[in-house]
Amino acid sequence: MGQSRLARVEIHIDLTGPRGHRDAIYRQLRAAILAGRIRPGEALPPTRELAQRLAVSRTTVSAAYDRLTAEGFLAGRVGAGTFVTASPVSAEPVPDVPGVRPLPEWDAVPPPPAPFAPAPEFDFRPGVPDLSRFPFDTWRRLVTQRLRAGQADLMTYGDPQGHPALREEIARHVGVSRDVRASAAQVVVTAGAQQTTDLVARVLLRPGDLAAVEDPGYPPPRLVLGARGVRVAPVPVDAAGIVVGAIPAGTRLVYVTPSHQYPLGLAMSLDRRLELLDWAERTDAVLVEDDYDTEFRYTGRPLEPLHSLDSRGRVVYVGSFSKVLSPALRLGFLIAPPSLVPALVKARYLTDWHAPNVEQAVLAAFMAEGGFARHVRRMRKVYRARHEILSRSLASFADFLTPLPSSAGLHLSAVAAADCGPLVRAARRRGVRLYSLGDFGVGVRRHGLVFGYGAVATERIEPGLARLRALADEGAA
């Protein structure tokens, strides 16, 4: 039967029914074993312990155990205990009852994407970094150092605003790399852009208020706002960025990706940035600036973030470590005007209190000793090479795809004259994972493809595109 599990199972037994206690214990244990709630190899509580908990005699529990043992469900080991031997025969049926219904806003929210198991053969999903190059050895050393030090403060409730050392490092990093002038007091550590959008909406918007998002754009913030009862208006994007003149009157919040528009990859022009800031001041609105993928810029001079141009406290700056390090860390940050910080910290406290303390302390140490900057430089070289290979290889699709100019990030987009949905679905069936540009639209859906190159190995780009080309030639496009 193998080794038993380390802990005994906790069992709930209901003795309020009409039958005797011995029969109730027997029937409920037998049902739990058959349904798989108690698994083979798990140990049951000693008869004395279970009898005390149920306030019955030990003889009653022993009789139930003996019957289950005689029927082959349990086996006793001298000096070790009583263990489950039988395997479940079927899944326990789920009661078919109507139940409580959620608010109708949640019907419009799609289910979360399912994890890929196994991973696609050619993974061109956007927004996914190369996790094989995560600095595992350094990260393991830093985690071990903190756990060996026995820092009890890391194992209790933390600061809703974030670990002080990490906030200091974030303020220093964005000040050096992006000219974002802010103190650690303006930094709030979050789980990423989605939580930032939720926090800002909580402290600034009421149900029925109007917010605007780029169209096409990053879907989660739009869904977060809609689920909170906020009316969301899609605003078109042109070559210079979001069309400010198309933002509806009464808009209280605009979510933008000006440095590397998602998914088109374009950068908002300086004139358009200034126009957007002037609009926000005139209309008393807030701009949520997602400075997406800016660590990985390959050509050209980076444009100033909206936050650097903002002198009136209208911009909440958003950053994340998901694309640079790993999405599993669930660590990001916002930099807010001082007037908003207290309310945002309260909102963070009320939602999930704080980010994981150990991960925050490790990331702070990783940044302080220069590991984060080294990792960014190393990965920038890797992604630049993939960007160049992908750009060059897309020439074989010139008959129906036109790549959009992009000099940063982890993806390239290309527009098409016809719907690429059939090609995307055919490619997924053949092990090539990518997205249609239409997946990111709200109003008028653009035709095209979005190619991520963070998760696909450099040497796999050309074979993956060759398979996609063959599918297109077969007529899937």
UniProtKB/TrEMBL annotation:
Ranges for domain HTH gntR-type come to 19-87
In the record, the note on similarity to other proteins reads: In the C-terminal section; belongs to the class-I pyridoxal-phosphate-dependent aminotransferase family.
Protein name stated in the entry: Transcriptional regulator, GntR family
Is Transcription regulation one of the keywords?
yes
| This protein's UniProt keywords | DNA-binding, Pyridoxal phosphate, Transcription, Transcription regulation
GO molecular function (one): pyridoxal phosphate binding
Phylogenetic placement of the source organism: Bacteria, Bacillati, Actinomycetota, Actinomycetes, Pseudonocardiales
Q: Which SMART domains match?
A: HTH_GNTR (SM00345)
Family matches, as PROSITE patterns:
HTH_GNTR
Pfam family example for this protein?
Answer: Aminotran_1_2
